[in-house]
User: What shape does this take?
Amino acid sequence: MTLSAVKTALPNPVLPGGIVDFTIVVANPGPATALGVTVSDALPPEMTFVSCSASPGVCNGLAGGVVTASLGTLAAGETGTVTISAQAPPAPATIANHALATASNGSGDPADSRVIVIVGSGGGGPPHDIPALDPRALVLLTALLVWFGVRALRGGA
Assistant: This one.
């Protein structure tokens, strides 16, 4: 029996000190029923635990840096979801986070559950401040694109 676990993080990137929600979706592809399904997530030390929820099942909380949740039994084809909220560090960083789903009658693949979180600079702009073009440069760029487009349609190179 092999479970699969897919983990996402939103928002990503997150502003320094902001809250990020990790969602771990555990699937049992079958054919057998997965018994005693648990999810373990070693929260990176840069992150501060805020809350956890599980459906179906219960979140057991944070102990020793690891968040655990008990999903119980997942029949073939069923999924369970664990959501962990954590606060990002106060400084920009790139953080890797792993989760592992296991069953008492099998195990999951931890390689399926890795996510990278980017903690941005908090500069107030887009995640990577992209400089805007001067309006005159935009007009020139538009004119060049139209000119090349017309030449291409006429078959000229």
